[in-house]
């Protein structure tokens, strides 16, 4: 391979890895993330040389890369290859949002039905049955005390929502409500 081809290939790979920018942040989840929606993510894993043109993608849905790289607290790079988890993380502003940086890679859950990504400010849980949802804070602590996904509540089916002066999050088999400093399970 001559030096011009090597430089061109290197430039293409570097450009693909550094310039994919996501702008599909849902401001209703974290208005404080501001411009975090334009956080740079690494290119999709197929961008490194499949030669495809990328045509045929739906224009009605935001493009979510199949791979994202974010710096963990210890400075190490974490590669996230689970599109539903990446999409949920994007809605919270990636590492610049209130969830912060990943503390490790996406891992399988013991029941074999789901995965999770632990972040500085919470955890994203995913299962085929319920999708990807953030669990954190007092509600996350209460869910943990109930046995997490293997407990009576099962997987989360929504993110937290403010309703009637309370914060609520639904799970496969119930709801946790936080109001007046107390978390209750129903």
Automatic annotation (TrEMBL):
What is the protein name for this chain? LGFP repeat protein
Q: Which UniProt keywords apply?
A: Signal
What is the residue range of the signal peptide feature?
1-26
> Calcium: is it a keyword of this entry?
no
**Which Pfam families does the entry mention?**
LGFP (PF08310)
Organism domain of life: Bacteria
Ranges for region Disordered: 27-62, 146-165
> Where are the membrane-spanning stretches?
none
Biased-composition ranges, Low complexity, are 34-48
Q: What InterPro entries is this protein classified in?
A: LGFP
